[in-house]
Amino acid sequence: MRTFAKLAALTAATLAIACTAQTAQAKIENGSNVSDMTVVDSNGVTHNLSDYAGKTVVLEWTNHGCPYVVKHYSEEHEGGNMQNLQKAAAEDDIVWLSIISSAPGKQGYVSGQEANELTTTRDASPEAVVLDAAGSMGRTFSAKTTPHMFIIDPGQTLVYQGAIDNVRSTNPADIAGATNYVTEALTALKEGRPIAEADTKPYGCSVKYNN
């Protein structure tokens, strides 16, 4: 299985990040530029964030075995909260990348074929599923949980990072009453308003890195 082809400079000149698969990275602050990163998806297709200049990009860390992820993909809530977010994003020409950073032998690890089967069986619709078995992308973004959400604006600046919403539970019934930080951030971005909650504490299962 192929993973990352390269992982280049992801921050502004004031925040340089050296990316390795073995070392935890400093948190990328909102306002940092994340314009140059090449990854390979579950179909072996190469994607570079610089290709998406002019578009909003959502990064979603996921692990299908995590009960918090199961909550947001559960059809008990209007056919699936995460699926609905992905569909709404596509309608607004937003690029949605689902990232799997589970290492081989760890919960959530999948092959490219298995990732595609998951996308089909749970009626998901990301632009692509990125396979990050080495954990390079996850460590660069300091992704800590599944889910952990990041939003990059059309100028390729990180503008949101954190939780999907404010109800830290595994119960799909809690979604209806939750404040969805991702929806609020995307709406504010679309309307040219400041994002009220731009850096929230993520919740979920820990990302299953290789060490």
Structure, described:
This protein has 211 residues and is α/β, with parallel strands linked by helices. It has a single domain (38-206), classed as Glutaredoxin. It is 21% helix and 17% strand. The chain has helices at residues 67-73, 81-91, 112-121, 136-140, 181-191, and strands at 38-40, 46-48, 57-61, 95-100, 128-131, 145-146, 148-152, 158-162, 205-206. The strands form three sheets. The chain has a five-stranded mixed β-sheet, with helices on one face. Strand 1 and strand 2 form a beta hairpin. Residues 1-24 have low confidence and may be disordered.
Describe what is shown at a glance:
The protein is an alpha/beta fold. It has helices spanning 67-73, 81-91, 112-121, 136-140, 181-191, and strands at residues 38-40, 46-48, 57-61, 95-100, 128-131, 145-146, 148-152, 158-162, 205-206.
What are the main properties of this structure?
single chain, alpha/beta, Glutaredoxin, five-stranded mixed β-sheet, two-stranded antiparallel ribbon, 5 helices, disordered N terminus
How would you summarize the topology of this molecule?
Blueprint: E1 38-40, E2 46-48, E3 57-61, H1 67-73, H2 81-91, E4 95-100, H3 112-121, E5 128-131, H4 136-140, E6 145-146, E7 148-152, E8 158-162, H5 181-191, E9 205-206
